[in-house]
Amino acid sequence: MLTKGYKNTDILIIGDAYPDVDAAEENNVYYYPILTRHEAESWQEFIDKYFDIFLNGEYDLVQKELMEKFEHNFVQV
Is the pTM of the predicted complex or chain greater than 0.85? Predict the structure, then answer.
């Protein structure tokens, strides 16, 4: 997407594992985590809340919070 001219703030990688996070970080784009054992809830929360935040250009305000949830989720596994 970056090579097609999209700005990094217009790209969101959705994933459930560290390689997905690495890809987002390497390309300086946003990441939305699908939490292990909470997949359905993660998708619903994305639809209900985070998709609009992303479209409104405010995802940087929630990225840190979401990454903390992602990290905490693996600690509990």
Answer: yes
